[in-house]
Design a protein that fits this description.
By secondary structure, this protein is an alpha+beta fold. It is built from 2 helices and 6 strands; from the N terminus they run H-E-E-E-H-E-E-E. The radius of gyration is 15 Å and the shape is globular. The N and C termini lie close together (about 10 Å).
Length: about 140
């Protein structure tokens, strides 16, 4: 399996895993972010994108970095629906220890990104490290 194929497979499996969070739509980050529209129903959306590799540790099989954009209508719980703060925590909890396609995923940090037109956005940084060594 090539680097691109293994990374793409792991990222898709991770996105499918996050789709298990109730009431949230998980999808790959859109090619044109200006076309994204938050679903009218549900708690919000999770947008997963590839964010690069770390070259600082040559013996580490180049960890893959992903970002998950958490997009919601509310910052905090309102009308029984979790806001961005709760969803960020759920993403971190769902991420810890998840394994797919030779990678183990861990949440590294989260950060506020923006609030615009009534949509709150936070980013959860995730790292995927190889659990098996590939022969080259």
């Amino acid at each position: 399996m090539t680097f691109d194929a293994s990374t793409t497979a792991a990222m898709s499996a991770y996105q499918d895993h996050l789709d298990g969070i109730q009431g949230v739509t998980a999808e790959l980050y859109p090619d044109d972010p200006s076309t994204f529209r938050l679903p009218q129903s549900g708690r919000g959306a999770l947008l997963v994108r590839y964010d690069g590799r770390s070259y600082s540790d040559p013996a580490s099989d180049l960890p893959r970095h992903l970002e998950v954009a958490v997009v919601t209508k509310n910052l905090r719980r309102k009308d029984g629906q979790a806001g961005a703060e709760e969803l960020v925590q759920e993403v971190a909890e769902m991420t810890e220890g998840f394994k797919a396609d030779g990678f183990a995923f861990h949440a590294m940090r989260d950060d506020f990104v923006d609030v615009s037109d009534g949509q709150w956005m936070y980013m959860v940084e995730v790292v995927g490290r190889r659990t098996i060594r590939l022969e080259v």
